[in-house]
Amino acid sequence: MFKIREYEDPTSFASACVEWLYRREDYHNGLISLTNLLISRGSVFSPPFWFVSIHRGDEIVGCGTFARPDGLLATDLPLNVLREVAQRLTFRISHPRRLVGHPRSVTQLAIHVSDCVGNSSRLECNWNIYRLDAPRSTALRTEPGQMRLCESSERDMVAEWGHQYGIEAPAPIDVQDFVLRKMDENLLFVWDENGPRNGNYVSPHYKWNSYFIGIHTKSVSPVCPCLLNCKCPRRIFSGTRS
Known about the structure:
8 helices, 242 residues, globular, Aminopeptidase, 37% helix, alpha+beta, 5-stranded mixed β-sheet
């Protein structure tokens, strides 16, 4: 028998669920980050909000959060509670518009939500999450260049990167404003090889992992191997927070 519990705010949701989410931070990283941003009143997200967890006895077996513009972000949910989850979600959020989660459960949830609101749903995109475990060798390969914090003298360049990213991959937020704020918060790094080659936003909302989001790449040569082979393994594989 499953029970559904709803929460009034992100703090109470985090108190009940975040320890369970951190047990699989590699898989639940998006929901952890969203919850922490809502607690800190991150300006990217706006109401209405909705917080829910699914329990089998005293054990949490799934949870989710709704916030605009991302929509519902959920862990894998038990299939036989999805109809009730859809009913509760559409009661609080009249037209959710966007659902993100495990393919197995979110596909069925979309069907139930469509039934509740009287419209159809379609698959927008598939995401793959890759977990990087400890390397076979602790020796780090030497790569040209280095990762460093973005400097104040590079503000115009960062603004242009954000502007171009917004054109190439339209987002529901102002990407230029976003990357400039991350630069001011000392969370924007560049890979420097005879000058900055790309920008990388490092999320502060992770306990055991490093989370990089590629912002802009100036050249066609790959930069991810450079990031992973140099300073990042010390953070990603050491089990410490970065």
